[in-house]
Amino acid sequence: MGFYVRNSTPNPIYVAVGYYDAGCSPVTYTKIGWYRITPGRSSLLVTGSSVNQTYYVYAQDNFNNEWNGNYFTSVPRTAFSMCWIESCQGTGCRTVGFDRVPVGNFLNYTLTLVDSTKGTSIPRNTRVSKKRKPKFILGRLSLKKLPGKLGKLGKIVRPLYGRLK
């Protein structure tokens, strides 16, 4: 009995999961990660009955694919186990969005993670990856000043009257 995640992609994925834990307060959820799941394998992430439980899942691979949602919390880049509202410290922390997975009347529940290149017919217990956008940080030398303002299609727009400021 429990909550399983199946990797149906050609790449290893790293999964974090949030689940009900009465020991955490005031938000009674805990988050743990990172589980490494190889292609074609399933992994038991949470033991116990899954009946009427709600889980929160975030996963990523090394090729900018991620499975995420709208429930944000901070996670470290190394293995962790902490209450949902706890914030991690240091430079290895980031905020990610977990996807909500309502289980329903299942003792065992398997969530299947697939690549975005799969077909359009998606069962209820399957999530499709999204491409992450690489983060670009502007530096001091990243910007080039041009005379005038840039308009549509990169053309320089000059004012009709008066001086250019």
Strand content: over 45%
- How many helices? 0
Average pLDDT works out at 78
Structural class: mainly beta
The low-pLDDT segments are 136-152
Radius of gyration: 22 Å
User: What is the straight-line distance between the termini?
Assistant: 69 Å
Largest sheet: 8 strands, antiparallel
Structure description:
Helix content is 0%, strand content 47%. The chain contains no helices and 14 strands. The strands form three sheets. Strands 2, 3, 5, 6, 7, 8, 9 and 12 form an eight-stranded antiparallel beta sheet that branches. Residues 136-152 have low confidence and may be disordered.
Topology (elements, then pairings):
Layout lengths: L1 E7 L4 E8 L8 E9 L4 E6 L6 E8 L3 E3 L3 E6 L3 E4 L9 E10 L5 E7 L11 E3 L1 E2 L17 E2 L5 E2 L8
Parallel strand pairs: 1-10, 10-11
Antiparallel strand pairs: 1-4, 2-3, 2-5, 3-8, 5-6, 5-9, 6-12, 7-9, 13-14
Descriptors:
165 residues; mainly beta; 4-stranded mixed β-sheet; 0% helix
Describe what is shown at a glance:
The chain contains no helices and 14 strands. It has strands at 2-8, 13-20, 29-37, 42-47, 54-61, 65-67, 71-76, 80-83, 93-102, 108-114, 126-128, 130-131, 149-150, 156-157.
